[in-house]
Amino acid sequence: MIAEAPEPVRGTDASNPYDLSPTLYNQDLAPTKRSGRPWRAYSIFTLWANDVHSLGNYAFAIGLFALGLGGWQILLALGLGGALLFLLLNLSGFMGEKTGIPFPVMSRIAFGIRGAQIPAIVRGVVAIAWFGIQTYLASVVFRIMIVAVIPPAAALDANSFLGLSTLGWISFLLLWALQLVIVSYGMEMIRKYEAFAGPVILVTMAALAVWMFIEAGGAIAWTTPDSKTGLDMWLAILGGAGLWVTIYGTFVLNFCDFTRGAHSKRSIVRGNFYGIPINMLLFGAIVIVLAGSQFKINGTVIESPADIVQTVPNTFFLVMACLALLVLTIAVNLMANFVAPIYTLSNLFPKILDFKRAGIVSGILGLLILPWNLYNSPVVITYFLGGLGALLGPLFGIIMADYWLIRRTRINVPDLYRNRPETDYYYRRGVNTRAVAAFAPSAAVALLLAFIPVFASVAALSWFLGAGLGAGLYLLVADRRPQFTDVSGEPIAVASTH
């Protein structure tokens, strides 16, 4: 169906013919024009080429080996998770391609122009905390590299100030500043960086796997002596697939932040296909070789590729491996943990914060929380960040149900930027109380499933259960009386530069 063109609103300021509210609209929140969108299949593929091969994901997948899953079982778990992610990311990505709007604005459709702050803030807080933590983890690799090149620098690693040594502070602040510089150039620079980093990390991790395979004498251990069998094995496979999707619960929620610049739906499908199921199988093969080789060598299971990098005997190759891990971690951090809070802050303060300023504020917040202390606190990681993460499933379910099942993709884009009672997304004083009513109980259930020990057997599926419950409750209470209109945002759109 061809979307209607929006009509100027009579009686408004001639300089603002569409009556757009300055508290809802700025150049970064505006929809992107269809012409000139730069994100093609390769750009989307490189997002996943970086993110799938993150250190955190390697630690998770190697953990499956340690928990008793063998080679083919790990591949099956990752394959199932990849297939589900491919479907979910397409659903989320198509929304951005059609409307050209970022996630905080997308949330206005279901939650209202003011109620949208709920999902945006939850996503933004999680991202800021993980931005700081991932920068800290990268700084640990950076410290290894500095000491390898300049051995006397180890003396700077012996003291402590606010939880970090002098060398730790130097490493952290350099990487922190580098990311702020990249973000200051906008989404196009992030896209270019991801395109550069993708091949670098794929080649590096494959080379590391080949080196370990040779070190192990050309053979690997496919299983550990504690390998699971029967029902326990299948439950572990399904649990691994579920947790794999949960890891990406943040991304499936705000994937539209990237696909609003996508050239076409075909670009999204192709980029997702090669970047998710295909790339995840390659990732799984590397995991099996790394973990199986190390187990074959000395009977131990590594926790992360960084453990292997530290054992590289040649200083030059150690430095190259460290640089590749730094390139990777920055790429993952930019896409997964920096873009979301930028749009959240811009949505909160559209008159004050543009993309660059919001990026600086996000970075400062990521520094002020002293993330290394958060990372070292199981209570913070499990109950605070874990709790916020559990809320992402219900939010995803509600937003998807509203867009695909209630409205059937019919969106009045200009009304997303208007603050008037008669507009489509004003609801009750800017809040859709029906969405909030569906979110509250589904969020409570998701939190219970994630944290109460008696539900440990289904904790890995808490994201799915929360998303399903959120969608189901919303479908029960949603208002189906309005005749939804499909109005293009092209007349109020801006060039795709962010």
TrEMBL record:
<dbReference type="Pfam" id="PF02133">
    <property type="entry name" value="Transp_cyt_pur"/>
</dbReference>
<keyword id="KW-0472">Membrane</keyword>
<feature type="transmembrane region" description="Helical">
    <location>
        <begin position="234"/>
        <end position="255"/>
    </location>
</feature>
<feature type="transmembrane region" description="Helical">
    <location>
        <begin position="381"/>
        <end position="406"/>
    </location>
</feature>
<feature type="transmembrane region" description="Helical">
    <location>
        <begin position="435"/>
        <end position="455"/>
    </location>
</feature>
<protein>
    <submittedName>
        <fullName>Allantoin permease</fullName>
    </submittedName>
</protein>
<feature type="transmembrane region" description="Helical">
    <location>
        <begin position="276"/>
        <end position="295"/>
    </location>
</feature>
<feature type="transmembrane region" description="Helical">
    <location>
        <begin position="58"/>
        <end position="89"/>
    </location>
</feature>
<feature type="transmembrane region" description="Helical">
    <location>
        <begin position="357"/>
        <end position="375"/>
    </location>
</feature>
<feature type="transmembrane region" description="Helical">
    <location>
        <begin position="162"/>
        <end position="183"/>
    </location>
</feature>
<feature type="transmembrane region" description="Helical">
    <location>
        <begin position="124"/>
        <end position="150"/>
    </location>
</feature>
<comment type="similarity">
    <text>Belongs to the purine-cytosine permease (2.A.39) family.</text>
</comment>
<feature type="transmembrane region" description="Helical">
    <location>
        <begin position="461"/>
        <end position="478"/>
    </location>
</feature>
<dbReference type="InterPro" id="IPR001248">
    <property type="entry name" value="Pur-cyt_permease"/>
</dbReference>
<keyword id="KW-1133">Transmembrane helix</keyword>
<dbReference type="InterPro" id="IPR045225">
    <property type="entry name" value="Uracil/uridine/allantoin_perm"/>
</dbReference>
<feature type="transmembrane region" description="Helical">
    <location>
        <begin position="195"/>
        <end position="214"/>
    </location>
</feature>
<feature type="transmembrane region" description="Helical">
    <location>
        <begin position="315"/>
        <end position="336"/>
    </location>
</feature>
<keyword id="KW-0812">Transmembrane</keyword>
